[in-house]
Amino acid sequence: MATLSLRDVRKSYGRTEVIHGVSIDVSDGEFIVIVGPSGCGKSTLLRMVAGLETVTAGEIAIAGARVNDKEPMDRDIAMVFQNYALYPHMTVYDNMAYGLKIAGTPRAEIAERVNQAAELLQIGDYLKRKPRDLSGGQRQRVAMGRAIVRKPAVFLFDEPLSNLDAKLRVQMRLELRQLQRELGVTALYVTHDQVEAMTMADRMIVMNAGNADQIGAPLEVYERPATEFVAGFIGSPPTNFFVAGDRGRIGVRPEHLRVVDPAGAPLRGRVLNAEPLGAETLVHLRLDDGALVTVRQEAARLLPPEGDEVGLTWEGGREMRFG
Amino acid sequence: MTARDALAAETPPVAHRAPSSRDGMVTRRGRGLWLTHLGLILGVLFIFFPIWLAFVASTVTQAEIARPPMPLLPGDRLLENYGRALRSGVNAPVALMLGNSLVMALGIALGKIAISLLSAFAIVYFRFPGRRLFFWLIFLTLMLPVEVRIVPTYEVAAGFGMLNSYSGLIFPLIASATATFLFRQFFMTVPDELAEAARVDGARPMRFFFDILLPMSRTNIAALFVILFIYGWNQYLWPLLITTDPSMNTIVMGIKQMFPSGDDLADWPVIMATSILAMIPPVIVVIGMQRLFIRGLVESEK
User: Fold this and answer.
1) N or C: which end of chain A has fewer CB within 10 A?
2) pLDDT tens digits, residue range B39-73?
3) What is the CATH number of domain B93-248+280-299?
């Protein structure tokens, strides 16, 4: 358990800089999610913290000590990989024990720690199996177990849930978060899924093309996105952007738009189609200037027929402007 | 039921699914099946007949072989002929030559595997100047088999005083571009995350090599061992050059030397017994490794 701090961390491959300086102080036990589209540099950032990529400039410190030039094993971290990276020829037990064995931990202590972790993750029955005899969810647990037994200062997760099916992903999401709280370990979690980021993070780093566009608590980021990119990336369906008369280009979230009578409305458009989702309905419209807009409204509200001309309105405080 | 219970109850993909898919594959019945079998049996008889003749010839007397028609059923001299071959042979006792061949074939097979595993490991997992150049240099040696470079190789071996020795029989044949290439291709299919996970677990490169890469390559090693053992066992030209002392002869060149030259009388029963004996070790290796080989293939299936 420890703090983690990044000071203007940069990464270049040759002359191409891919991370343009990221700084954050992570406090002890905090769960930080790095989120962004593919190619934004989020995995590179994580791998730099892990020690699998060199740091071009800046400083990474774990528990106050600079770790830039340390090997991964000396950084007191544990990592869970996207494809789990379990050793295929070893049993589940050996997979989890391998790191401890190398560290020269006494046999009895290894057994105790592995069994403890196995119990915590409910994989005690599978300890003698090989990874290929396990389902995706079980492999995921073993990968997590391998990280837990080392009792690291920082947990690193590289899209650990993206190979699971949707239902399992939701379960594991909750469970992983709960586990991290129980153990109280500082965690850095990379994902491209903004729902995962919103639901799991204490704070999130929204990455955009090598920049940390915004760092903050999920709801704060949702309510007050720092850039147009963040506003568009966080939230599903995404924020609508359109030109509203002399107020210029603004963004309004779908739930803040209301379909009203065209007469006197600030904006007008045609209904393309409506998607009833049960509790709510998504209404897709095309504005007169060609922009596509999505409105999220309660299912009880009247559904405008397709092709109808309607008006759009929103509360003045809900519009977002980016320079 | 909590989320965790639901997950734990989820069944793993166990192996019993495999047989059902196989059922559909080999269920040809009727005349086609019999014809196939007939063809295969004829093929086996065709291949096996010369070996049978050699076996028959190794169990009769010289006179019986010389008198036509040649016998087609084994005689009563089996123990006597084989005993004579093993103990005295023609130039050197066959038992000794079998031993020499075994040492050479094992040395070549194991040496080739060890060297090519290490060089493939270096080429795939390490960045060093001239990496590509070295790879292509190794690859280039594929075009230079022993026969092409035999004179300079002999010169070097003689210079090291390796004539008439096991090291002379083994070392010049030990480098293998084919095996290096094969292991390189295999290592390249091993996900990078595995090496990274090992690094995070604290494994240094050689530890990763022995603990993870080596066990994962065991099927490839088994297959290569079979091929390379037979390659080593069948060496003829090189042992012929490098050994002059009959006590260092290998079995394959020994058989050739037993053939009569000029007016000598050939001891055919002993020669045939020697041939049969020379066949046994490769057959044992093939049959013995086949089981491990197939098991390995099935196990590593993901």
Assistant:
1) C
2) 999 999 999 999 998 888 888 887 777 777 777 77
3) 1.10.3720.10
